[in-house]
Write a structure and sequence with these properties.
The protein is of the alpha+beta class. The chain has one domain. Helices cover 43% and strands 20% of the residues. It is built from 4 helices and 3 strands; from the N terminus they run H-H-E-E-H-E-H. Helix 1 crosses helix 2. The N and C termini lie far apart (31 Å).
Length: 122
């Protein structure tokens, strides 16, 4: 997260979301060996921008999803798996799921559930 960026969550919410997201990453073989700097880049910005959703079952986190509202150019970056800069997260109108950490559930199902929920909102 860049210095001076707007912080949209209180410290308690940030810490709780970060802890749950990182815990899920330790359970997922796609993430467990990544350096802390990379994990922070993947998790901190969407938490601070409130562009994340934690899914739980019986008070246990099962998935962490991040999304962005992007321009067409940034959408291509997301589809290519490139990391997003701070300004990319809210660069346009296209809603894209950036990442799903889901060691206990099918990631595609979590993504579809999120997108259906967004489409059904007024």
């Amino acid at each position: 997260m860049q210095k001076g960026a707007h912080i949209g969550v209180d410290a308690s919410t940030f810490g709780s979301a970060l802890g749950q997201a990182v815990w899920l990453m330790t359970m997922d073989k796609r993430y467990r060996d990544r350096p802390i700097r990379e994990i922070e880049a993947m998790v901190a910005t969407p938490i601070l921008l409130r562009q994340f959703k934690l899914y739980s079952k019986d008070k246990q986190p099962v998935a962490f999803l991040t999304w962005a509202s992007v321009s067409d150019a940034v959408k291509a970056k997301v589809e290519a798996g490139a990391p997003l800069a701070l300004e990319d997260w809210r660069s346009g109108e296209s809603l894209v799921v950036v990442d799903v950490v889901s060691p206990f559930a099918e990631a595609e199902g979590v993504k579809e559930r999120f997108l259906v929920g967004v489409k059904s909102e007024p």
